[in-house]
């Protein structure tokens, strides 16, 4: 594991030496593809249960969760470079952009693969700063300052008490090794346990702590919202999965309240989605809805629930970042994110509307996508918990498919405003969307590689 | 000639602090306090930047009050040693800690501190917020923890973080942030003096690289920071990395200080004071972030040497980025990126 982290560091140095602006993005993408292929080939034998670690070296190690999360983050960062052509074309601080992406990748890989809790915390918080820089540096409106402030303060208000709790745990067990803490089972009351979990609830985000997310998504450039929806939210789910079992004695009381709260919140937020006019904030709210289901799956305390949550994270990462790309493509053409301006697009280019259709169907977890199997897993785990949840889940599934359909039908059909200067989509843009769609829709044929 | 005088006074300033750190006698500590004051005032007087010297009288009066009360306490302790215990020793500790709090400008006596910091040039500001605090902090580390110190730490950290939020003057912001850092330093020196020295070293490194930048460019208000757009964008990047490091955000060196002191405090079961300090450092983050917004927004602007000549003291673009002080600043920034990672990898915290 250590060698890949060193390779990422070396690539950073390479960029400092080369510093030629015209080939920088191509070089970056080639490096990332090499890294991804080496990584997958090297650790493709990993086929494990929960908390079984491979490739342990110093404080680093991989299990199935972190392995696929690292793959996802390299993949998303690769596509981020592809999506933000405007930065490359107009040389809008391209060097800084590439270095920022490299730092983001470094922090993400470290935080997904590290086994020491303090190191995990540091990397978890450190990944916030390149994101903040991305939002503030390359964002569109001046409201991005407020959005950045919201994002920083929401996460840090709950993360600094976690720091305090972490040293309290260290005082209790004299170790911060995550696996050791999971075996040892610390004796918390639910007040202290809340402090441990709250940092991840903000990051995921759970309902009622999600205030920063739509703001940050709306103000961020396309690469910022791709990384936020694709990987940053998954960091929260990963953290819950790692630290959920450190005190099992109070889980039975604690989990039910969190689970029901987040599921009911998801229903509420899917109703909020149905009356959005801004496409980007609709997609942002839809990702909060999906993450509510992920919290439900994780806190059902069953292996199938954890696996379903894991699959949901991967599929949602691909699906929603693809949706953000599409929204940005329309934004670049019509200079608006409004659904009213961007309606009736089917007459302009039908092939891209096919992509839009497939991504929206992925978002409502229709059959050929990876979302379907993950949602089936999550429903199995939640329904085996109590029969009472059927009502909530029925409403949830209905409304979540409603807003996906609403988004698709509004963009494709209806009477269009006549956009006379609508350029057709380039090969790069089709390629970008296909790179989201192919893993999303074809991975289901070999679903057993994920667990 | 002037340079020689400055050199002598700086030498005395350094020497007095070092003697205090290594002395056994209360009387020598008191003498070094006075010498420190007597060498610091000429240093301020001789710098060109100051027009009116009236604030120096305020500074002198406050410092002499605190050191004379320190002297009284010392003599009372001396009497106690030779006769039966006439005076309560608890009373002595309260007297000592109050005089040191007055000297550092913590909460009940913080008004003079802000007023004087507003008038100082930037490098004197740096000395005032770091070097001048070493002697009082060492004196605090010599006696036991008492409620006076706890109360001042709690209240001064809260008040400085709340008051700093709505300031526009850079010196006022950094004065409040220095009060906040001093409350961290005080609780650290209460635990152990080595903790305080570690904290102070890192704090000085980070603060110097910020203050140097503000000094070279003559920045006094937040909106002046937009002039940095005329430089190479890496300058802005380094400024914002250093400010976030001062705020104590995770991947930077400023976080090491927080880790070390929080670990010590938690291991000594001081949960209340730790949580209050953490909340206050969160509130200081708000105004540190306000400082960084000017440098995080990337604007493409043409370089305009005439404008820079107007605003900065001695400006030459070619030598600016690679001169010695900036090189040091860049080195500190790079160090601050990787030291934390190395430290946690090998369990050095």
Specify the number of helices of chain A: 19
What is the first-to-last residue Cα distance of chain A? 20 Å
Q: Termini separation of chain B (Å)?
A: 47 Å
Count the E strands of chain A.
2
Record field, number of beta strands of chain B:
0
Give the integer mean of the pLDDT values of chain B: 83
Largest sheet of chain A: 2 strands, antiparallel
Order of the strands making up the biggest sheet of chain A? 1-2
Model description:
The complex is a heterodimer of chains A (451) and B (349). Chain A has helices at 2-18, 24-42, 64-83, 85-89, 94-113, 117-126, 128-138, 144-173, 178-184, 190-203, 212-219, 222-243, 251-274, 279-298, 303-334, 350-363, 370-383, 389-412, 427-442; strands at 54-57, 60-62. Chain A is mainly alpha-helical. Chain A has one domain. Chain A is globular. With 349 residues, chain B is mainly α. Chain B is built from 16 helices and no strands. At the A-B interface, helix 5, helix 6, helix 7 and helix 8 of A face helix 11, helix 12, helix 13 and helix 16 of B.
Topology:
The complex is a heterodimer of chains A (451) and B (349).
Chain A: H1 2-18, H2 24-42, E1 54-57, E2 60-62, H3 64-83, H4 85-89, H5 94-113, H6 117-126, H7 128-138, H8 144-173, H9 178-184, H10 190-203, H11 212-219, H12 222-243, H13 251-274, H14 279-298, H15 303-334, H16 350-363, H17 370-383, H18 389-412, H19 427-442
Antiparallel strand pairs in A: 1-2
Helix pairs in contact in A: 1-2, 1-5, 2-3, 3-5, 3-12, 3-15, 5-6, 5-7, 6-8, 7-8, 7-12, 8-10, 8-11, 10-12, 11-14, 12-14, 12-15, 13-14, 13-18, 14-15, 14-17, 14-18, 15-16, 15-17, 15-19, 16-18, 16-19
Chain B: H1 2-21, H2 26-46, H3 54-82, H4 89-104, H5 111-117, H6 122-129, H7 134-141, H8 147-163, H9 170-191, H10 193-217, H11 233-247, H12 254-267, H13 271-296, H14 305-311, H15 317-322, H16 324-345
Helix pairs in contact in B: 1-2, 2-3, 3-4, 3-5, 4-7, 6-10, 7-9, 8-9, 8-13, 9-10, 9-13, 10-11, 10-12, 10-16, 11-13, 11-16
